[in-house]
Amino acid sequence: MHSTTEVFFRHTWDTRKVIKFDAMQRQENRVENKKVFNNESRMPKSEKIFDKKKYRLKKYSNKYKVHKWQLRKTVAILRDFYNKNHRGEHGQQNKLEFKKGTSGPKKSPSFFDFARSQYLEKKADKKRKKEEILRILTIKKEALRKYKENKMQKYKKLSKKTKKGQPVMKERIELLLQKIQQDKNNDVTV
Question: Where are the annotated segments for Disordered (predicted)?
């Protein structure tokens, strides 16, 4: 068996070895991680690596552009909110306080809450406008369909011919009668 002093010295000797080994490894890591500079520029070579995939994503990807646009939009909304509601004259802050119900603690809205409410309002407006446009388009399509149908019927009636190639007068006279009746009805209602 070893004496306690011998174990103590061996232990301290081992820790000294470990400490020295750690220091050597740190030194090696520093040398390995040391940035190597290019002679042409002061940019490290490790940062000059060109990633073609990232470049193409940034240049051509619609998702990337949309994401970037959304970020800019949210930052702009937050900036506008902060400038309008939290800055008074001379750069002093105004405190907006809203009551919950009739009696309750006052709470100032956060930027996120305000941005969300604005976003939801804009989304609802867009939805309403889209529905209105769709409704108008359906009305227009229906009117156009009726117009084309009437035009086709008129064309069929006017283009009828006899065996000898003469126009059939019966159909033409019926069209004239319908026109006169419509004009008479329009004059009475107006």
Answer: 86-109
> In terms of pTM, does the model score above 0.85?
no
Residues 73 and 79: their CA atoms lie apart, in Å, by 10
What would the two tokens of residue 40 be? 């042409």
Between the CA of residue 98 and those of 13, 101, 104, 107, what are the distances in Å?
69, 9, 10, 5
65-104 per-position pLDDT tens digit = 888 898 898 888 888 888 887 665 455 555 544 444 555 5
Pairing outcome for strands 98-99 and 106-107? antiparallel
pLDDT tens profile 125-166: 999 999 999 999 999 999 999 999 999 999 999 999 999 999
